[in-house]
Structure formats: C-alpha cells, structure tokens
Amino acid sequence: MRRKVEERKKVEKKLKETNVAGAHTDYGCVTLLFQKPGESGLQLYAPTLTPTPSSKSSTTSTTADSTTTTTDKPKSKWQDVPYIPASPTYAKQGMAPPLVVNIGDQLSYWTNGLLKSTLHRVRFPQELIASGKDRYSIVFFAHPDDDSVLEPVPCKLVDEYGKGDGNGRGAAFDLVKFGKSITAREHLDRRLAQTYGWKY
Ligand SMILES: O=C(O)CCC(=O)C(=O)O
Ligand SMILES: [Fe+2]
Predict the structure, then answer these.
(1) How far is the CA of 25 from the centre of ligand 2 (A)?
(2) Is residue 148 situated within a structural domain?
(3) Per the count of CB atoms within 10 A, which of 26, 90, 112, 168 is most buried?
(4) Which residues of the chain have pLDDT under 70?
(5) ipTM over 0.95
(6) What is the CATH number of the domain that holds 133?
(7) How much distance in Å is there from the Cα of 199 to the middle of ligand 1?
C-alpha cells in the first residue's frame, strides 16, 4: 500500500514538472501576458544571447529539454522568461509589472516573416511545485477582425524581406501565388487546420 502511494506521488510530481502548455506559437497578431509575482514558467525557444563557438561542422543533439544544433548560427534552446517586477517608482504607485508581449503567426505572416512568431511553452515552476501553490496568468490574444485582409504591410523592410530566400510563406508570397490576399479568418482557419489536421 505504502509503495503504491509513493509511486502515485512520483507520477504526480512528474506530471506537474511537465509542460502545462506544450510548444506552440500563438495564432493571432500579438499576445499580452500578465503574470503574477513569482509565477514565471514561460519559456521561449530562441537563439541564446551568448555567442556560440564557431564550428564548420553541423551536429544535432536532442535531449528531453532542447534540440540544439552546433553550426555557425546561434544555438536555439529553451530559455526561461524571467518575471520582471514593476520598477520601484511604479510599484509605489500600485502599477502593474511590465507585460510580456509575444508576436503571433498572423503578424509574422503579415510582415512576410520579418517579425517572427515566438515558439514558446509553459513549465510549472519548481518553486511553485515546492510550495504547493498554483500558477495563474492572464493572456490576451489580439486578433484582427475576421474580414481584415492580410495584404503585406506596406513598408520597405517588409517588402525586401518578402523577396529574400526561404521566406516563401508570407503575405507577399500568397499574393503572388493566389492573385489575392487572404483574410484574417482564412489565415486562422489555415493554422487551426495545420494544428488539428483538418481537411477542407
Ligand atoms: O501562461 C502563460 O505564461 C502563457 C500561456 C500561453 O502561451 C498561451 O495561452 O498561449
Ligand atoms: Fe501561447
């Protein structure tokens, strides 16, 4: 009996330590994330800010936590997004801490991939597991109206980026391919179909 209880506890602990939200990008334009003090947990899959030693060869290694590729490019790995408190001046006035702003797929599409939607996930923070507390966050997903037409954002940088190599999935590419721009609703349906394997 005792062994059973211990095993159950082990399973529960493992469950809690796994992702609360698996790796994904958000579908909309921007996401605003409101966090509570000490309740971090958001992680980004992004190039590290520290320089990577240069190497001619390219090797890939996968662990439970990250897939890293050693090339001349900066390495991407899962990184914690720290909770940043309000500055003392603002905190004194009872103001909220800074928001985390994530770029979503629609903004990425709209800018021909110049702005990147961030691959992220949520882990249950160790400190909260230890203290038996819950984690709360408020997430605001900003989407354009369904009938907004996702024409490439009229901007020189976006225009030039759309002509570059390997960016063939943005608004400029589709405009050339289909002869018209898609709406925000069509873009959302496309992303939902990719996620859930829907067929039209
Ligand atoms: O709770 C968080 O920190 C983020 C949640 C999230 O990524 C989402 O709901 O899309
Ligand atoms: Fe998200």
Answers:
(1) 6
(2) yes
(3) 112
(4) 1-18, 49-72, 164-168, 199-200
(5) yes
(6) 2.60.120.330
(7) 27
